[in-house]
Amino acid sequence: MRKLLTLIAIFASTVLYAQYFESEIPQPIDTNAVVREEVYLDTVVIKVPDLNNYSSIGVSFGVTSAYMQFNPSKRQHHTYYPGYASLRFTHYEKMFDYLPYFGWQIGIEYGHEGYRFRKEDDMTYKERSQRIKMEVVEVPFLAMIHYDTRWMKFFGEVGLYGGYRLSVERFGLYVDENYRYNWYDSDRRIDYGLQGGLGMGVFVGQFEFFVMAQLRYGWSSIFEPDSQFPVGSGYEDRNAYYWRFAYPFDYIFSAGVNFALGKRYGKTRQDLKREAYQIVYGTKTSNQ
Fold first, then answer.
1. Is 280 within the bounds of a domain?
2. In a domain, 277, yes or no
3. What is the mean pLDDT of the chain?
4. Coil, strand or helix at 241
């Protein structure tokens, strides 16, 4: 009887040990299930919100400091003309779907061009005017780069503009009255050139109040360039070497307000944390 009980105990121990050892052996990997999971993960698209992707429309007002690049050079004063105004549409978006700090801008501007000589005898050979004032309307198309915080923006812009000189007014003792408010046949009224500027703004809700300084360099002379200087101008000896021209070279100082047409995404640390939370959990929280 004792031998029988001993055999039963040994058999039971062997069965229990075999079951325990078998449970420790890894089960075969279902390769088909792994492939299905990889295919599913490849189809999952996580949409990341664009930073600083919004549009705005705004107006600005300011003053123009008019100057002219003459050949031959003339001694001039900067002449300040108030009355600058602009209406612009701006869109900020990622460049190449990667860099979030870029945008573009298009608009319409009204302002002035002109010059004022330092001495009465420093006058153009034809107009005989000491000072000239021209009204201009222009359409700029500019590329922009900007840096937004929650409350402020710093930005720069550069691009081209095209425009039209609307009117002219000439001042001086020797101005021909027939041309005081009229154009000469040799005058150019088409205006175009390079424009750029720097500025900063402050956000109040959907509104952005900003100040800006711009440089406008005209590529269209205010009169037809001519290789021949007239007799009596004092520059006859330069006829073989110099061209006469006068290109606008102006500074514009303005202030204005933009209105954001959609939600403005900032790029502060708090904004990034909140957007990351929404991506992971799909809900908003005011504590992040």
1. no
2. no
3. 78
4. coil
* Residues 189 and 101 both lie in one domain: yes
Q: Give 250-269 pLDDT, tens digit per residue.
A: 999 999 999 988 776 655 56
Residue 276 lies in a domain: no
Examine the domain organization and report whether 260 and 166 are in the same domain: yes
Q: Per residue in 176-219, pLDDT tens? A: 888 899 998 888 999 999 999 999 999 888 899 999 999 999 99
Neighbours of 257 (CB within 10 A): 16
The whole-angstrom separation of Cα 217 and Cα 195 is 6
Most confident of 42-51, 164-173, 223-232: 164-173
3-state SS of 144-207 is: EEEEECCCEEEEEEEEEEEEEEEEEEEECCCCCHHHCCCCCCCECCEEEEEEEEEEEEEEECCE
Does residue 168 share a domain with residue 152?
yes
Q: Residue 214 sits in which domain range?
A: 54-271
At 259 the pLDDT is 93
What span, in angstroms and rounded, lies between the C-alpha atoms of 90 and 72?
40
Looking at the fold, whether 99 and 21 belong to one and the same domain comes out as no
Cα(first)–Cα(last) distance of the chain, in Å?
76
